[in-house]
Amino acid sequence: MNKLVLWFVKLTGWIPHLFYFKKKIIYVNKKNQGRKIKGNALIVSNHKSVFDVALYMYVFFQRDIYMLVGEVMYQKNKLFSWFLKRIGGVKVDRNSYDFNFLNTSVNLLNKGKVLEIYPESRLPKEDELDMLPFKPSFIYIALESGAPIIPVYTDGSYNKKRGCKVVIGEKIYVRDLYNEALSENENIDLLCKYVENYIKELEKYTHEEK
Predict the structure, then answer these.
(1) What is the pLDDT of residues 75-125, one digit of tens each?
(2) Are the C-beta atoms of 67 and 116 separated by less than 8 Å?
(3) pTM of this prediction?
(4) Distance (Å, whole) CA 43 – CA 56
(5) Which of 140, 95, 139, 135 lies closest to 119, judged by CA?
């Protein structure tokens, strides 16, 4: 990450983002977790659009956020690949089964950083209206680092008159939910599903807030 590049993007994009996103922030429990993030954390969210990354850059404006980015984004061109690295992209090569991103993620969190993950692993197709099943890598990262998960939901209504809604849930500490009576794989599966279902439930807040 290059902070000069990142903050140049943040500051020059501030006014355009107000018109494009027109975001409405909803909190499940603002005392437990608001927009200010203290210490390390994993932002875990559903994935509606490539613009999700830009949205969260302004939702959690005060923190510099690293993010897991699929290899396909780095293959666009050299300039864009350079740009992703400078704004905090951590490459995930899903085709090579290279898991170095796990160690990189844990190291960042151990240094007090904030990491953003989209466990659906890809954007939905036009006919895929429901959230895709979560991949469990974020659970490994959270367990290894001890960092809290900040669950977030966005309805992805970008560049529309009513604007987009973002729901910030309560922090989840997966270490506290780990069941020693179960195997590691069983725990990983259950914890992954727990967070997935929690984020699914956040959607209801977007309907309650008019």
Answers:
(1) 777 888 888 889 988 888 877 677 788 999 999 999 999 999 999 988 888
(2) yes
(3) 0.91
(4) 9
(5) 135
